[in-house]
Amino acid sequence: KIVSYIIANHSRKTHSRDFNAIFAVSSIDVLCKYYELFKLQQTGKESKLKVATIFSYTPNEDDKTSEMLANDTSAQLSLGSLDKHSRDRLESYITDFNEMFGTKYTTKDSTSFYNYYRDVANRVKNREIDILLVVNMFLTGFDSPTTNTLYVDKNLRYHGLIQAYSRTNRIVNDTKSQGNIVSFRNLKKYTDQAIELFANKDAEETVFMHPYEVYLQHFNESVAAMQKHTPTPPDVDGLYGEEQKLEFVNNFREVIRMRNILSSFADFKLDETGLDAQMFEDFKSKYLDIYREVQQEHEKEKVSILEDVDFELELIRRDNINVDYILRLLANLVGATDEQAEKIKKNIFGMINSEITLVDKSELIRKFIDGNMPKITDSAEVEGEFEKFWDEERTKAFEKMCKDEGILTEKLQELIDDYLYSGRKPRGDDLVATLSTQPSVLKRQTIADKISSKLNSFIKTFIDDV
């Protein structure tokens, strides 16, 4: 039941798997049973949770395990198919890890096992692992901002409880405004004791979140404040001037902040509030329209009071809507009737307008749909034709940027290659160094900012999340 619950709710707990979790259990035997159940219950599923594990094993346990299993029938029954000693079990789980990530770790070599330990830590931090199953390891001292949830099926007390809970408390942004502790045991008494011992009797107000009803009320109040001036999404189009748009942006941003907090509660269902899912998506489209306007004004070097607003776009990101997903939908256009095609296009354009990962790509996707899709007669050709189109558009955009700003193409390409490898965006001095003619000292910063803005737009459009 616990495994089923986690599989069903993990995406909601981790904001569409934008974060990940540690699962702390009571013993190695229990851990192994959980690991096998995760494998069993996810067999044949497309979007499997990536589960990994690590634990310490006893080097000389062969004889002890063999003797126990030979003389204790109940032990045989309780272990079932897990009648290997812990090193063999871990070796098989590392084999699964190797198959998942193309690595070659083993417990048979201490250096290799240490490298496995470090790789597990790095992949948790990089969100490549969804759930890390542990007994004691990683519950103290492990710092991973991407981990927002701790599942618990073991007794925790005092400093051990505080340490384990604290694995989730590295606040990153408004998406991770709190950590989630999902306990499958009643640890309330121990939690209260630990907080009283290490903080004070009144610390609960600052440690724990408020009850669900408090956030729901705040959410409804935020929706009411937004709808006071914009009752429906089309009303946003009638807003006059930047002051009114700024008020809408601030109001809707509070709505999405509250929805973000509420989404971690099992009781929350958006459609049961005064703002159903479709209306939320429509308001989100208008919110993103204003974001696009601000970006365009910035590129034209026009001053706007909205320019300093943090739109907090990470709050409305959905990992499952990306270019690949859109391409799968586009394949359905081939051979569709006019009526079917209109419905498919309407659905796709709606996603493009309301999905943050596609904001900077929307214009080009529309261009491909309108100009290229009518010429495609085989759905299997959609992906290849899109890649060809995308490469051509990227080359044109790259060459235009270099020509407009007097940039040496080879040098700028080197900076982009370095970004692809390291994830570090070029600094101002790096960008100025790509110019065919070096500017005066007084103009360097202004020119660097201008190139940086154009390059960031290029990266968002043609590189990130493609």
Keywords:
mainly alpha; 19 helices; 56% helix; 5-stranded parallel sheet; 5% strand
Write the layout of secondary structure elements.
Layout: H1 2-13, E1 20-25, H2 28-41, E2 51-53, H3 62-71, H4 73-79, H5 86-101, H6 110-125, E3 131-134, E4 147-153, H7 158-165, E5 180-183, H8 188-198, H9 204-207, H10 212-229, H11 241-262, H12 277-299, H13 323-330, H14 338-354, H15 362-371, H16 382-405, H17 409-422, H18 428-432, H19 441-462
Parallel strand pairs: 1-3, 1-4, 2-3, 4-5
Summarize this, please?
The chain is mainly α. It has 19 helices and five strands.
How would you portray this structure in words?
The chain has 466 residues and is mostly helical. It is built from 19 helices and 5 strands. It has helices spanning 2-13, 28-41, 62-71, 73-79, 86-101, 110-125, 158-165, 188-198, 204-207, 212-229, 241-262, 277-299, 323-330, 338-354, 362-371, 382-405, 409-422, 428-432, 441-462; strands at residues 20-25, 51-53, 131-134, 147-153, 180-183. The chain has a 5-stranded parallel beta sheet with strand order 2-3-1-4-5, sandwiched between helices. Strand 4 (147-153), helix 7 (158-165) and strand 5 form a beta-alpha-beta unit. The chain starts with a helix and ends with a helix.
